[in-house]
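Pasting as-is:
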Amino acid sequence: MKLLFLLAVAAVCIGLSFYWRAPWIGGVGLLVAFVAMFTDRDDVSDDDQSGYETSKSVRNMRSRNR
């Protein structure tokens, strides 16, 4: 949710920089976009650490490309 909000703020800033012809606003928008990219977390749980055996879906994904 935070990623989408920050990308929307960045898009608005970049759009305003064209409308007002103020390039510094676009720079702020690009900075906000970089912050959004680098603060995005991957909330997928680490399946290997949660138990002794991996789940069936993880085993299927790992064996698919072999």
